[in-house]
Amino acid sequence: MLGLAFMFSATASALNIEEDSMKLNIILKDKTLTATLNDSPASREFAALLPLTLQLKDYAREEKISDLPSRLTTEGSPEGTAAKKGDITLYAPWGNLAIFYKSHSYVSGLIKLGQLDEPDALPVHLDAYSARFELLTE
To answer: Which InterPro entries does the entry link to (predicted)?
Structure first.
């Protein structure tokens, strides 16, 4: 486990990921959104997967979800959280990414990874669409 943590730490260092926050672009067909990831083990592991193209599909008319290519750590994360519009989260029981376009009450297993810089910018139509996540480098 220590080796795995070191691998992600080394990958994050190689990408020049700052310790306090990480900026990323989410590139859609017709626009680019910006987001800020928090400084947590799960967020750093997500950043280490980038660039990454995901298919976002609607779930419960509140969020866009997508499977990730590998499970992210939950080490050091709270048991759960409430979601605000624009939050980028990991739903640990399913291992998927969820971006909320509506606020939601507390959910056990929900881990906040970051937030959209403009919470209203995420398209909310019910169709699935492709999104490319790229870490911004200076």
So the answer is: Cyclophilin-like, Cyclophilin-like_dom_sf
